[in-house]
Amino acid sequence: MIHFIALNRFYIKNIFVRAHFLTLLLAVGFVWLITSPAIGLFTVILSLFHLSEYISVGIWCPKTLTLDSFLLNHSPQYHAAIIIAYLEYFFEKYYLFPNGFPYHWITILTGLIMILSGECLRKLAMYTANQNFSHLIQEKPNKEHRLITHGIYEYYRHPSYLGWLWWACGTQVLLANPICFFIYLISTWLFFVDRIAYEEATLIKCYGDAYRNYQKRVPVGIPFIRGCLYNWWPTFVIIFYVLCPIPLTIARHCTSNDSYGTNDSTPCKDFMWFLTSAIVASAFGLPAILFRANIILAGSMGFIMAANTVVFGTISTYFLTLNSDDSLGNF
C-alpha cells in the first residue's frame, strides 16, 4: 500500500517486504506501549520515520524514489546506534531503576516535543525543496534543479539536517538514555560536519556566487557548523608546524658536533630526519586530500600549500644555517 500511494506500483517484492517489516515494527511498538510507554513510543516513532521518509519522497519528489528512500540501509553505524539505544534502555530499566525511572513522564514529553519539532522541520524542508530534494548529494544536478532559498530555507541552509539532529537526540531524551544522547549528539554532529562541507562544495561548483551569497545571508542551523565557506579542517596544518621543529631539535643533539652535515650520520639522526619528512609530507598532503574530497576549494588548497612552503622553508633555513649555539649567539 505504501508504494501504491507513492508511485502506483503495488507488487514490487523488495518494497513490499520493507513496508511490511516497518508495519510489523509499528504494531510491536503499539503493543509495547501498554507495558513500557517510552520504549513503545521509540519503536513507533522509529517505524513511522522510515515509512514517512519513503512516502514523502514518493509524494514530493517521485523521480528520486528508490528502495533506499526507506533509509533502512543508512549505514552499519546507524544500525549499531539503534541497537545500543535499546540495550541502554533495558539495562537502566532492569538493573539501575527496577522500580521505575523518576520523573519519566518529563523526559517522555520533552523527547516527544524534540522529535515532533525535528520531524516537522525535516518534512517542511522536503516539501519546500520538492523536486529538488534528494537523500543523496547530487554532484551534477540536472537542468530541472534550482537553488532553493525561500520558505524554511530563508532561515536555515540545511533544515532537513537540523530536523534530523533534533529527531535523533529527542529519541534518546524520550528513552532517558544519557550515554546514547551524547553518542547520538556527537556522532550526528561529526557526520554533518563532513557531509555539509562536501555538499556545499558541490553547490558552489553548480551555482557559484549565487550560493556564496546565500551562505553569507543564511546560517547552516546546526551549532558550530559553518559549511564549506568557513571550513576549519585546513587549520590542522598548524599541528604540523608545531611538530616539525621537534625531531629537528632532537637530531641536532644526536651528533657529536651539533651540526646537520651528512658526514656525521647516526641512526638517531636519520630517524629524526625521516620523521621530519613525514610531517612535511603530511602537511602538504592534507590540503590535497581535502580538495580531492571536495571539502575545500582549489584556492584554499593553493593558499595552504603556499603557507606550508613559507613556514617549512623558514624552519629549514633556521636549522640548517644555525648549526650551533655559538652561531646562534653570533647571529
Automatic annotation (TrEMBL):
It catalyses: [protein]-C-terminal S-[(2E,6E)-farnesyl]-L-cysteine + S-adenosyl-L-methionine = [protein]-C-terminal S-[(2E,6E)-farnesyl]-L-cysteine methyl ester + S-adenosyl-L-homocysteine. Keywords: Endoplasmic reticulum, Membrane, Methyltransferase, S-adenosyl-L-methionine, Transferase, Transmembrane, Transmembrane helix. Its main location: endoplasmic reticulum. The chain crosses the membrane at residues 21-51, 103-125, 164-186, 232-251, 271-291, 303-321. GO terms for molecular function: protein C-terminal S-isoprenylcysteine carboxyl O-methyltransferase activity. One of its GO terms (biological process) is methylation. Its EC number is 2.1.1.100. One of its GO terms (cellular component) is endoplasmic reticulum membrane. It is found in: Endoplasmic reticulum membrane; Membrane. It is a multi-pass membrane protein. Pfam families: ICMT, Vps55. PANTHER family: PROTEIN-S ISOPRENYLCYSTEINE O-METHYLTRANSFERASE, PROTEIN-S-ISOPRENYLCYSTEINE O-METHYLTRANSFERASE. Belongs to the class VI-like SAM-binding methyltransferase superfamily. Isoprenylcysteine carboxyl methyltransferase family. Catalyzes the post-translational methylation of isoprenylated C-terminal cysteine residues. This is Protein-S-isoprenylcysteine O-methyltransferase. It comes from Rotaria socialis. The lineage of its organism: Eukaryota, Metazoa, Spiralia, Gnathifera, Rotifera.
